[in-house]
Amino acid sequence: MDPPNLETRVADSLAVLDAVGSERPVLGGELEGGAANVLFAATMPERVHSLFYWYPAPRSTHAPDYPWGGTPEDLDRRMQEKADHWGTRDFDDPDGSSGGDPALPWGLLSRQSASPDVAIEMWRSSSS
Q1: Which residues of 76-103 are buried (b: 16+ CB within 10 A; e: fewer)?
Q2: What is the pTM of this model?
Q3: C-beta separation of 36 from 6 below 8 A
């Protein structure tokens, strides 16, 4: 199955926002995750309070015109490492650099957003 395109992701977001009664949310995302929110805000600015886009990147994988990307093997390894710590404090701080700072709730957010398997599939679908 092909990953959903940006228009489908915008339509899905709109359906969820309508279902929960959110009229003007703050939308945000990182890497490719922000792209659908940018399209949402550009096509329906009256429905968006504000937008943030953290760490935008044109792609994740290496290409002749993008030497900074990783190989598919590198990306698979990194995805599996993230999935192994999904929803835990280790996901928040895998190298211990934050000293366990609870202000970095990525483990909680990961647990609330998707299962590890779904997250891996989303990463794979966006790693191009």
Answers
A1: eeebeebbebbbeeebbbeeeeeeeeee
A2: 0.62
A3: yes
